């Protein structure tokens, strides 16, 4: 899956691409409402209604992170469950935006038919009322309401998330904003080479010029 703000869902073979950023000019008309995967969603109790701390390897950077299991329990439960199953290891961060909003998007698997873990969840949790996502934010990507309608879009979160590497204002759509489930508390500067290298082939929205993969995630 890939997520654009306003996210547009585009069918690519059997995979969905979500985008949580401003849609590209050529993406004028979204495809008809895609069928999202359904399956058992990790129990929200996994989040334990507490703050989690740990580390996440992203490219050459070892990021220190905190997850908010109080304000975003379902997103945190899903992230913890997938990390514990080693779902994220080796996944390439597939999207970088370098103008307007500043995010690195990760979590789309090439090993599963839908690009995700086989389930989606909602509703949106802990979205900022002012649409402001500060540097270091960890937030969930989703499909836009243009593709699924507000109700469907609000329940289209899965494994994709984005790292905000510079303060960004990301407009909400009909479904709302984007779930903030945690933050980076250290190490973000070690990803600067990825941000500086920009988008592969030029432009402001696309695959990073420097391939960047997820590695080990440890939480406690």
Shape: globular
- Could you state the oligomeric state of the chains shown? single chain
Known CATH architecture: Beta Barrel
Mean pLDDT over the full residue set: 86
Derived from helix and strand composition plus strand pairing, the structural class reads: alpha+beta
SSE order? EEEEHEEEEHEEEHEE
The tally of helices reads: 3
What percent of residues adopt helix (DSSP H or I)?
A: 10-25%
The CATH superfamily is known as: Cyclophilin-like
Descriptors:
3 helices; disordered N terminus; 12% helix; alpha+beta; two-stranded antiparallel sheet; 13 strands; 220 residues; Cyclophilin
Kindly summarize this structure in a few lines.
With 220 residues, the protein is α+β, with helices and mostly antiparallel strands. 12% of the residues lie in helices and 25% in strands.
Protein model, in words:
By secondary structure, the chain is of the alpha+beta class. It has one domain: Cyclophilin-like (Cyclophilin), CATH 2.40.100.10. Helix content is 12%, strand content 25%. It is built from three helices and 13 strands; from the N terminus they run ββββαββββαβββαββ. The chain has a nine-stranded antiparallel beta sheet with strand order 12-5-6-9-8-11-4-3-13, covered by helices on one side. The protein has a two-stranded antiparallel sheet with strand order 1-2. The protein has a two-stranded antiparallel sheet with strand order 7-10. The relative contact order is 0.26.
């Amino acid at each position: 899956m890939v997520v654009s703000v306003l996210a547009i869902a585009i069918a690519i073979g059997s995979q969905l691409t979500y985008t949580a950023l401003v849609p590209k000019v050529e993406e004028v008309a979204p495809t008809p409402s895609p069928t999202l995967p359904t399956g058992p969603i990790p129990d929200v109790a996994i989040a334990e209604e507490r703050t989690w701390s740990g580390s996440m390897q992203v490219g050459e950077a070892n990021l220190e992170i905190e997850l908010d299991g109080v304000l975003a329990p379902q997103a945190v439960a899903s992230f913890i469950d997938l990390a514990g199953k080693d779902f994220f290891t080796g996944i390439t961060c597939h999207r970088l935006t370098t103008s307007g909003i500043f995010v690195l998007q990760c979590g789309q698997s090439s090993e599963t038919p839908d690009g995700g873990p086989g389930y989606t969840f909602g509703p949106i949790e802990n979205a900022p009322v002012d649409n402001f996502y500060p540097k270091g934010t960890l937030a969930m990507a989703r499909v836009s309401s243009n593709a699924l309608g507000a109700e469907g879009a609000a329940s289209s979160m899965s494994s994709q998330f984005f790292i905000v590497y510079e303060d960004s204002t990301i407009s909400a759509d009909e479904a709302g904003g984007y779930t903030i489930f945690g933050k980076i508390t250290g190490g973000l500067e070690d990803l600067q080479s990825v941000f500086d290298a920009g988008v592969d082939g030029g432009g402001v929205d696309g695959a990073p010029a420097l391939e960047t993969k997820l590695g080990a995630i440890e939480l406690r």
